[in-house]
Amino acid sequence: MADPSTYRPAPGTIPTDPGVYKFRDENKRVVYVGKAKNLRSRLSNYFQDITQLHPRTRQMVQTAASVEWTVVASEVEALALEYTWIKKFDPRFNVKYRDDKTYPMLAVSVGERIPRAFFYRGPRRKGVRYFGPYSHAWAVREALDLLTRVFPMRTCSKGVYNRHESLGRPCLLGYIGKCNAPCIGRVSEDEHRDTVNQLVSFMNGNTGPVVRQLTAQMQEASEALEFERAARLRDDLEAINKIMEQQAVVFTDSTDADLIAFHTDELEAAVQIFHVRDGRIRGQRGWVVERMGDQAPLEKVDEGEDDPALALLMQNFLIQFYGDAVEREKIEAEEDAALQRRGVDQESRAMPRQGKVIPREILVHTMPEESDEVVKLLEDLRGAQVDLRVPQRGDKRALMETVEKNAKDALRQHKLKRVGDLTARSAALQDIQDALGMETAPLRIECTDISHIQGTDVVASLVVFEDGVPRKSDYRRYRIKEAAGDGRSDDVGSIAEVTRRRFKRHHEDKLALPDEEAEASNFADENVIEETTDVARKFAYPPQLFIVDGGAPQVAAAQKVFDELGIVDVTLVGLAKRLEEIWVPGDDEPVILPRSSQALYLLQQIRDEAHRFAISYHRQQRSKRMRSSVLDSIPGLGPTRRTDLVKHFGSVKKLKEASQEEIAEVKGIGPKMAETIFEHLHA
Fold it and tell me: Where are the transmembrane segments (predicted)?
């Protein structure tokens, strides 16, 4: 790999103007494209100490062999040029939003001589119109079945069509009226094309003419006493109404908007977009992408502040998604023009282009980094005004929360797929073994994390994974003693205490070699929360890998405890949150796993589970302390009756509002004790 210092531009040569830059490898291929308000400030970040760079950014600058830039007049021009270059060069280190392939679509092959409608998954192809995506495969097939009642167009494959064309008789769908059988000449190509145009127009939202036409035909048939035909038209009208009802009305007005939300972790980001047209959800799409180094700032974001990483992700997504949509729209317009030149009427099938691909309203859950410039670029692409904002209240805010939940669930499902697959778990454990130089794969992994608020209510968690999946029966929770009395936050000392308490029993068991009953008895430790003797032997079994949440200081503290207890059969590492670095005791440099490796995903899941378990216990302890602190000073009131009081009234606040007589109604509380409680609460 190249050393970035070998191609670093000379000091002062990089302009301070806005512009776009390209990193090229030794073969002159573009590996990354970016933009900046200030080129000198942005590019200088890439040539700092590489150990401080994000792992993916570090890989990029070491892959590159040169850097070049282009100065532009404004930030809007920089956004446009960045998008153009990304599309032109397809750099390997730029985030690419690809369909997650989880949503099926209804496709119509308008480019074929005899178009057909069919169920489809996968990337979009030229000459095919797509509708959806739908949430389930059965929804596509149900919609197709209902549509062919009203628009009896071809749905068979090319092989089936050619076979029946040679046989001179239609298939079953042709006999039952769900296909107009162009294969045997029952309708001409132009007549079949008209049916296709009507279906495409209907799916594009032009439902009114179809409903009015069916209603008029049904009334005419009824007046002419053609009751069978009227009944068939009535069934067709019901099918149309059912298709329209499948897309529920979410807004009372004719809102055209896209709602976009992200959910991220340290490694990946999930994005969901809901397309609302005429007040209805017309489609839903989702992606899961790997986060780049530029999209993961090192500084911590305080609660209530906008996350710059999400802002940059949103900005890049808006430009790339809508830029691609406009390009795709131009291609489809060229296809329409080509069909028109062939004499095919396209007026009924071509949906109104202006304002459809880019709606007037784009609602996001966080504003992009350079919102003004992004709006200008979107308005140039749309040719009209664009309202980009974060919904604050009402129906749009409620729907945005739904989009956010979908993004969160999509990322969770994506991560579960990685660890839920046996092959993936085996590969992850093997990768961990290779990366840490272990003799065997870590079939049992334990991880600990500390949780507190400014040194108060310090607790720790210990989670256990066996064969790459959680073993919740072996989870343990600890109240930290050494950090509890002084009110100071000492994560290093807390890690040492948890490690000592976890492995002290294991060490003593190895020396004493007790029988089963003694071991179960010795294992019962008042310092360990919620444990039972029936799982003592399983929990006493040492892990092959012990993970502490933190970097070099936390690992050094745990290793000191290992040395004291003589623990040599357990591999110890620390997992730092900032850059997902793996710290090994005694090593000056961390182990960096590839961002896409199964091992890193498994380690991250274990660390996140320990964090979740620690936070839940910390909240429980904090709530218990705050709930009982007011009642602790009441003489003669023990823990049991304090708990009964809080349970009876629901909270200490409601207990204060109660009268002396109401307090006396609580089981175990007499009139005299009720008087004492009332006086202390209102002193």
Answer: none
